[in-house]
Design brief:
Blueprint: E1 16-17, H1 18-28, E2 33-38, E3 44-48, H2 49-65, E4 73-76, H3 82-93, E5 97-100, H4 107-117, E6 121-123, E7 135-136, E8 160-164, E9 172-176, E10 181-182, H5 184-190, E11 197-200, H6 207-218, E12 222-225, H7 231-241, E13 245-248, H8 250-257, H9 261-264, E14 274-277, H10 284-294, E15 299-304, E16 311-315, H11 316-321, E17 325-331, E18 333-337, E19 351-356, E20 365-368, E21 373-375, E22 379-388, E23 394-398, E24 404-406, E25 409-411, H12 413-420, E26 426-436, E27 440-449, H13 455-463, E28 474-478, H14 491-500
Helix pairs in contact: 1-2, 2-3
């Protein structure tokens, strides 16, 4: 049996367009499952490779009639589902650029992202929320008379445009410059093998879930997608579908580990060849338990940003010899810099981690709505703090002072503070992250008000402006300004004060 573009050795002989890869998979084994969706109501739906290819052809043709063409952006706000994968692949088949975002965003937050992306088409939103754009609601279907035959071969100029928060409180887009092709090198990074099975539980608008799931799809993996993460359902899906590869963030790992032993050990995970964790630092004790459970040879960790300037990898076996490390660079370069002076630090010293693809300044991405933080020599930083030892192993100490990492998702305090300040009784606000056993951090708001407020009043305000994970879990009310005379707030000092208080 041969795979897409197979050279006879089980791997593609050369890069292919996404559309061509999907069609060749359908031609090779038309009845093999492509995507299975576990819906929120408990129903299960599977589409075969042939069905998936034909449906994405039909959707693409319908969208072409709406004016979508090569290089156009398509904003996709669909939940984890077959429909999400169909929308993304239809976009690529037109040579357009998928721009995924959360299906749960309030209108105003989505509007800000749509304004940045300026898409030709918005999918998965209320048309009334974007009156001057072409918008298709969730559940839209192309007319059954639209041709579902093969399309002209087109390649998107850039693979994807992912959404991220910004330190200014406004969103930004990270636009990856690699074209919309199926490249053997990408599968190699994730250890994706042809015709395997991948259980997908992370939100598909997130870079990690999106990149890993679509890579698996291109290589003929059966993608089993859950509507949201559920610890026991994840294990059940791995057993039921004999999954070969699984990607989790540490918060998911913790919730699985917190299951009763009898439940966690009830499921057969022997089919898993590769288990990845990434997206956030993993507590060493938790990783050690997973290594004991699954075995070190199956566990891998990748560290790097959506920007992909550089990245590290470490195996479970390596980690036992270098506990706490996220590995050594497998592409690009990294160094540690004093955050105040900008001077390079010695091995083992903690500072801000800077990355670059190469000394020539090759960029694999660009931002829309933000600027990179850089140093001479084409070095850029994501704001992570850490160290690199004399053998090149990278250790993360913390994230940039202001950003809060909640269950693998980035929360920028300025965005939450700006929303809080819209309440007429709020005079000033500061948002910080405090430790949380489940999520890693919880969002905590310190609020100065003119009168007594209830937490639920602020929750109601924020629910109209922010996605749920950005809303503070705890509030603290003060009678003095949390900002100095210049209007600045020292969030790290506020956080340190609260951590130093006796419990």
């Amino acid at each position: 049996m041969r795979t897409v573009g197979d050279s006879g050795q089980g791997s593609p002989a050369e890069p292919l367009s996404v559309g061509r890869a999907i069609t060749m998979l359908a031609q090779s084994e038309p009845d093999r499952p492509a995507v299975t969706e576990w819906a929120s109501d408990g129903t299960v739906r599977t589409v075969t490779r042939s069905e998936f290819d034909r449906r994405t052809n039909r959707i693409a043709r319908a969208w072409a009639e709406f004016g979508v063409g090569v290089g156009d952006y398509v904003t996709i706000g669909l939940p984890n589902s077959v429909a999400f994968f169909e929308a993304v692949v239809a976009t690529w088949k037109l040579g357009a650029v998928p721009q995924p975002l959360s299906s749960r965003l309030p209108d105003r937050e989505r509007q800000a992202i749509v304004e940045l992306a300026d898409p030709r088409l918005v999918v998965g939103a209320d048309p009334a929320a974007h009156p001057h754009r072409r918008v298709l609601p969730t559940g839209w279907e192309p007319d059954s008379t639209v041709d579902d035959g093969s399309l002209p071969d087109r390649v998107s100029p850039v693979m994807r445009a992912m959404t991220s928060g910004g330190s200014t409180g406004r969103p930004k887009l990270i636009v990856r410059h690699d074209p919309g092709i199926v490249d053997p090198a990408r599968a190699g990074i994730y250890r994706v093998t042809p015709n395997g099975c991948q259980v997908v539980v992370g939100p598909l608008y997130h870079s990690v879930a999106f990149a890993s799931a679509t890579t698996g799809l291109f290589w003929g993996n059966h993608i089993v997608v859950l509507p949201r993460f559920d610890p026991e359902a994840t294990l059940r899906a791995v057993e039921d579908y004999r999954a070969t590869i699984l990607f989790l963030v540490p918060t998911m790992m913790l919730r699985i580990w917190r299951l009763d032993d009898a439940i966690r050990n009830r499921y057969d995970l022997s089919s898993l060849e590769t288990f990845w964790h990434l997206g956030a630092p993993c507590p060493p004790w938790l990783k050690a338990n997973w290594i004991d459970w699954l075995g070190p040879e199956r566990i891998f960790e990748l560290y790097g940003g959506t920007e992909f300037q550089a990245g590290t990898l470490i195996t479970g076996t390596e980690w036992l010899d270098h506990p706490g490390s996220v590995g050594r660079c497998i592409f690009g370069e990294m160094k540690v810099v004093d955050p105040d002076s900008g001077a390079d630090l010695q091995p083992g010293e903690i500072g801000e981690i800077y990355m670059r693809r190469d000394a020539e300044g090759t960029l694999g991405y660009h931002y829309i709505g933000s600027e990179s933080r850089s140093l001479p020599g084409h070095w850029e930083t994501l704001g992570d703090m850490g160290s690199i030892d004399e053998n090149g192993y990278v250790y993360l100490a913390d994230r940039r002072a202001d950003m809060i990492l909640v269950g693998g998702a980035n929360v920028y305090p300025a965005e939450v503070e700006n929303a809080l300040m819209e309440h007429p009784s709020v005079l000033s606000a500061a948002v910080i992250g405090l430790p949380d056993e489940d999520l890693g951090n919880r969002v905590h708001a310190i609020v100065q008000t003119t009168q007594l407020l209830r937490d639920d009043e602020l929750d109601a305000l924020l629910a109209e402006r922010l996605v749920r994970y950005k809303i503070p879990r705890t509030y603290e009310y003060v009678d003095q300004s949390v900002r100095d005379d210049a209007g600045k707030v020292r969030r790290s000092a506020l956080r340190d004060e609260r951590l130093s208080q006796p419990t």
